[in-house]
Amino acid sequence: MTxxxxxxxxxxxxxxxxEECPVDCIYTGGRMAxxxxxxxxxxxxxxxxxPVEAIHFEDEIPEEQREFVIENARxxxxxxxxxxxxxxxxxxxxxxxxxxxxxxxxxxYRP
Length: 111
What we know:
This protein has 111 residues and is an alpha+beta fold.
């Protein structure tokens, strides 16, 4: 089980979670942040600092936000807009910086 970021992050992206993450596994897109599913060590440091309570264990995310579990994984597994290759396992968000793009679902998402 891993943590995922849900709908409340879209267009808010406070980034307190990014600063708190000890393993640098929270990557920033254009409209929201994403937690890398295999880099996350489930420490939970990100969850309490999120001001909009957008971070959940994947098995505990509200049912109406289940798509965000898929989108957190898709962000790394499929090529993002403007990229040919998927991000895969880049080994830390600081190495690649802010990406400024999101999955197609998040691009089109309207809260």
